[in-house]
Amino acid sequence: MNYEVVTYFVNGAMVLFGLIMAVAPKTCTKKDFREDSQIVEKTRKSGIGMIICGIALLLFNLIAFNK
Fold it and tell me: Residue 65 and residue 51: Cα distance in Å, rounded?
């Protein structure tokens, strides 16, 4: 298996998990804290951050592997 394929898979998984966290933050939050709106909102923001980081890493990998 090629190292490049593994990095794309990890980037895709990161974006996918971030998307799930951003779309359904209440289900991604620990059961004990699902009623706390601040923690649910923090989960949503963390998901958006994961999406941004995943896309940034994907772009970095595309640039680095195309040299």
Answer: 21
Contact partners, residue 48, CB within 8 Å, separation at least 6: 18, 22
Identity of the amino acid at 32: D
Q: Distance between terminal CA atoms of the chain? A: 20
Number of neighbours of residue 9 by Cβ within 10 angstroms: 11
Say what the pTM is. 0.86
How sure is the predictor about 67, in pLDDT bands with cuts at 50, 70 and 90? low
CB 48 within 8 A of CB 18: yes
